[in-house]
Structures are given as structure tokens and as C-alpha cells.
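Review form for a predicted model. The reviewer records the input and the model, then writes brief findings.
Reviewer: anonymous (R2)
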Amino acid sequence: MTTLVELAAEKESADVTDWAARLGWVVGLLLFIALVYWLMREGWKWRGTLQSDLPELPDAPSDAGPARLELSGRYHGSTTAGQWLDRIVAHGLGTRSRVELTLTDAGLDVVRPGAADFFIPADRLREARLDKGIAGKVLAEGGLLIVTWEHGEKLIDSGFRSDHAAEQAEWVETINTMINTATTEGTAR
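Model under review:
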């Protein structure tokens, strides 16, 4: 039988970690992550360049009239109407943010702290509906308020989520009633 001392003498100690190789892998991984981030940023800028034909966003009029509805929540972005993955990034429309919406007879005032505010004139509103998703955000069916509007030559879907989801149905009904009333009055003239 071998003695305990002989067994201990035969064993080699475990290999020591190769810190240079490990550090090399960590630096390589960090460089790869930085490259991917830079490529994503360049893609975002390129998309904005491709959408540069989109006119400047209108500002809210100084006297828009009394508020019909008000909502606070989140702005999730805008896409080309009917193409829920074709995000529009020009003029800051791709920037997610908190939002304060105010609907008046003049239109829809979109106030976004930390991002560009814009105004959708009432005659440019085309439709409102509840949907489940817009580029980068998918919720349960009916979780997003989608407002379709015309800007320049383009139809745009903008997605909003109220802090109180139950009030979104009232927004859909009110906006669509405004649109139908304006269309009826326009054809009656």
C-alpha cells in the first residue's frame, strides 16, 4: 500500500488560470459589443437620412380650444401606416418617451418631456384604433392606442399607451367621431 505522503507527492497541482488569455477574451467581447452598438446607431441614423423627405412636424396652435380628452402615458413610436415594423425615426418620431396627449377641436397635441413635441391637426387625423403592437412594442390585444394621421404625402401610425388602459376605448370613439363628423360636414358643403 502506498502511504499518504507518496499519494500527495504524485499529484500535480491544478493549472493556474491564464489571466492574459482571459483578459484577451474579455477585451475582445467588449470590443464586439461596442461594434454591434455602433452599427445599430449607424443604422438608426441611416434610417433617419432615408426619411429626410418627411416635412417638419407642426407645432400646436397658441389657442387650440378646450380639451375634449386628456391622457398621460407612454409614446411608443411611429411607423408607416399599416406596416407596424417600419419605424419612422425622422424628426424624433422614433424616440420613446412619456407623453401627455390633449385632444381638442383643433387636433391632437402630443407633449413629450425629453423629446420633440408635435401636433396633429384635426383635418390630418385619419383613424384611431386599439391594436396589440407597433415597432418594438407588443402588448395584449387592444393594449395600444394607434392614431393614424397624414403628414406630407405619408400616412403614419403613432402608438400610445395610457397609464389607465380603460380610457383608451373612449379615445378611439372620440377621434373616430371627430373624423366622421368632419368628413360628413365636408361632403355636405
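Findings: The radius of gyration is 27 Å.
Further findings: The first strand starts at residue 69 and ends at 80.
Recommendation: see findings above.
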